[in-house]
Each structure stands twice: as C-alpha cells, then as structure tokens.
Please model this.
Amino acid sequence: MLDDFLVRAAIAGLGLTLATGPLGAFVVWRRMAYFGDATAHAAILGVALSFGFGISVYVGIVAVALGMAIAVASLAGRGNAMDATLGVLAHSALAFGLVAASFLTQVRVDLQAWLFGDILAVGRADLAVVWAGSTAVLALLVWRWQALLTATVNEELAVAAGLNPRREGLVLTLALALVVAVAIKIVGALLIAALLIIPAAAARSLARGPESMALGASLIGAASVLAGLFASLRFDTPAGPSIVAASACIYAATALLGRR
Model:
C-alpha cells in the first residue's frame, strides 16, 4: 500500500495540472516564459511579506505577483526593453525576498522548501487550496477561452471583434498569479515556470489544435507528476525536481516523435 503522504502528493500534483496545462499553453503561445519565471521569483518576496505581516501566504503571493505584472506593464509602456525589465524585476524581487526573510528572526522560514517545493509535506488543507485554486483558474480560462485565443493570435483582430487585448492580458496575469500561489508549496518558486512551460512545449509537438494542445499539456503534466513521484520514491531524490526532470524526459520523447 502506498503511504498516505504519497497519495496526498499525487492528488495535489494532479490537481495542479488542471490549471498548468491550459495556462502553460498560453504562456508558450504568447512567449511569456520569462514573465512566468519573474512571477515565480517574486513569490518569495510575497512569502516573506506574508510572514512579516501575519497574513495568508497565498494572499501575499497573489498581491506581489499582481504588483509585478503592473510594474512590468508600466515600465514596458515607457519604452523599456521587456526582457531587460523582466530580468531586473525578477532577480530584484527574489533578492529582496531573501533579504526580508533574513529579518524574520521571530519566525522560522524554511526557504529551501519555498524555493524547491515540498510536495511530500502537503496536508489535507493544502489539497483543498490547490484544487480550489486550480479549478478557479481552469474555470476562468474556459470562460475567456475564445477571447484569450483571439487576442493571442492577433491583437488587431481582437480589437476588430470588440475585445480589449490588455484586459485579456490581465486575465492571464491573474491566472498566472493564482497558479504560482497554489503551486509554490508543491514544486517551489524556482520550478513553477518549468512545470508551466515544459508540458505545454511537449504537447505542441503532437497537438493539432489549441484545445488538443491544452489537454495534452495537462495530461503530460499529470504523467510527469506520477513519474516524478515514483522516481523520488524509488531513487530517494527530491520530489519537485524529479517531477520537472520527468517532464523534461517526456518533452525529449515528444520532440523525437514530432520530427517523425
């Protein structure tokens, strides 16, 4: 029989892939990989502020992630290079988060768990948060699917259809912030972007349409979770990195199949 903590880890990981699959597809289509990485790095600052002010970690992460998105949009709108802006903000937020955590002498903060995740320590309350957050993100993406897809394909076409591309971009930003908030305890801030990007990139090699790519990304993410947990149990390796490594192996296999 599998240990109870391993079952909880699998259920949490599978719940997370409900949201990371379709959201990761949009991240790949819109070339937001670096933005996802910056949001994940900013999550550490959200964790430190949450412990410092005694508020929910999830609230702190979402607030900082949204603040990061607003800062990026503001600086990019003033003519700053997007990649340089994201690089500065991402590493600055991570550094300020680590510095802020060092001042929390009255609270013990396990930074390694927040950086690399600890899916094996997921409790029943965490399961409820992960599934509720993932379901909310999935519902948001399904509701705005056609509008998001149109804005992703061609912004001028979206405007002609009566859509606001900036509003759709904000919807994706909100979804990304929620996913980072619920995923940080599972795979950690440094691996969230990988879980978003790699399954979606793997599904793109085999998909024949947007919907099939989003579904394929979720299925590949689920397979990565189960394979990574099995490898972690079998070889005594860290669970979070093992999940990402399994996802990378699946990506390599689908890349070869896609060429054929």
The chain has one domain: 4-188. The radius of gyration is 18 Å. The first helix runs from residue 4 to 29.
